Amino acid sequence: MERKQRSSLIAIFGIVIFLGSMFLLLPLVEYYLLALILMFVGVIMIGIGSAMFKNFDNSLDQPAEDCYYCNGTGRIDGLDGPVTCARCGGTGVFSSDSD
Ligand SMILES: [Zn+2]
Q: Which of 29, 40, 67, 79 is within CB 3.0–4.6 Å of 94 for a Cys-Cys bond?
């Protein structure tokens, strides 16, 4: 598995933990403390995941890398269907000097 995917999985898992504990555990008085701890863990995982994700893109030495905004497709899902990615201008290639 790619590091990029792994870091986004950590962030997604953190969101799931955060939302799950907020909606499932927080209303229960006896799990209140557990919910707070899990929400805290979730927030940390979201932070770590997004930090890893950004780090991965910023620390690249290669000049050409798939644009992380559109995953190299050059297109992102807009309200009325796919639109050209504003970050890479539809090329699908991320270049640090355009940042
Ligand atoms: Zn893009």
A: 67
Burial of 30 (0-12, 13-18, 19+ CB in 10 A): exposed
3-class SS of residue 2: coil
Mark the residues whose beta carbon lies below 5 A from ion ligand 1: 67, 69-70, 85, 87-88
Name the H helices within the chain.
3-20, 32-58
How far is the centre of ligand 1, averaged over its atoms, from the C-alpha of 76 (Å)?
Answer: 7
Q: Measured in angstroms, how far is the CA atom of residue 61 from the centroid of ligand 1?
A: 18
92: DSSP letter: -
Compute the distance from residue 57 Cα to the ligand 1 centre, in Å: 13
Tens of pLDDT, residue by residue over 45-95, are 999 998 888 776 655 555 567 888 888 899 988 888 889 988 888 888 876
pTM for the model: 0.51
Q: Are the beta carbons of 22 and 59 closer than 8 angstroms?
A: no
